[in-house]
Amino acid sequence: MEELIKRCIEICGGEEFVFSDGDIGSNILLIGEAPGENEIIQKKPFVGKAGKNLDEFIQILGVKRGDVYITNSVKFRPYKISPKTGKRINRSPSILEIRSFRALVQDELALVDPSIIVTLGNTPLKQLLDEKSQIGDIHGKILKVNIGEKEYDLFPLYHPASVIYRRELKQVYIEDLQKLKKYICENGIV
Ligand code: URA
């Protein structure tokens, strides 16, 4: 892990970053987009509002946050300057930013070696699967994917934050989570 963090520092080139949180020996790896302002302050992925959304998710799965390994596709905070306030605001990472972390994220997956990877939203799909992937086309089912030298089970979910902006997704999101719960129970992952 130390070696991965050293490489991360190099890629980030002086930008503050958040690497990951949780149990490195976990069977479940959850991967989101990138840290935002709160994550950089607390040096932990998925805190603040995003953390609350994630807690709901974790509760439905019937596991504890500490039992899951939580990471992001990009480790620094992508931001832009708000023309209104002049302050930094979060934005989605660019494809170049996603690519700059690809080898690192692949090595991170190999180190944790989870039984299942749960991706949240589009960014981790672009990082791990295909840069043209769209969550709306492939959510809610197990995909067998080759990443680096290994084959993994990958379960794409909508990003919990997108469910807040698009209320019509809530029901689909809950159904996907229930499918995921069934899968991890039936396959002895939890
Ligand atoms: N916080 C994170 O760490 N990742 C996300 O994708 C969203 C919020």
Automatic annotation (TrEMBL):
InterPro entries, per the entry: UDG_Type-4/5, Ura-DNA_glyco_family4, Uracil-DNA_glycosylase-like, Uracil-DNA_glycosylase-like_sf
EC number(s) recorded for this UniProt protein: 3.2.2.27
Gene Ontology BP, a term: DNA repair
Catalyses which reaction(s): Hydrolyzes single-stranded DNA or mismatched double-stranded DNA and polynucleotides, releasing free uracil
Domain of life: Bacteria
Pfam families recorded: UDG
Domain Uracil-DNA glycosylase-like residue range list: 19-178
Keywords: 4Fe-4S, DNA damage, DNA repair, Hydrolase, Iron, Iron-sulfur, Metal-binding
Enzyme class: hydrolase
Entry GO MF terms: 4 iron, 4 sulfur cluster binding; metal ion binding; uracil DNA N-glycosylase activity
Family: Belongs to the uracil-DNA glycosylase (UDG) superfamily. Type 4 (UDGa) family.
Record-given protein name: Type-4 uracil-DNA glycosylase
